[in-house]
Task: inverse folding
């Protein structure tokens, strides 16, 4: 559990954008689920590929923090 906290705390401070693979690791789900969750939230995804081509997609960290803040569950 300590490794998970160290990894997440270190990444948050320096990272401005998250890739789909980063979010899949962070949320512990598949990349397809990440795409579905972002689409359901209406999040803006930056795509660096030419029209109709496969490419790298990233999401701003501020958008991810908003999504996580809305979906966080209180334990108490």
Result:
């Amino acid at each position: 559990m300590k490794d998970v906290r160290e990894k997440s705390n270190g990444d948050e401070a320096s990272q401005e954008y998250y890739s789909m693979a980063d979010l899949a690791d962070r949320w512990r789900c598949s990349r397809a689920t990440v795409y579905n969750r972002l689409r359901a939230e209406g999040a803006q995804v930056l795509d660096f590929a030419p029209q109709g081509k496969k490419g790298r997609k990233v999401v701003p960290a501020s958008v991810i923090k908003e999504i996580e803040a809305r979906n966080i569950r209180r334990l108490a």
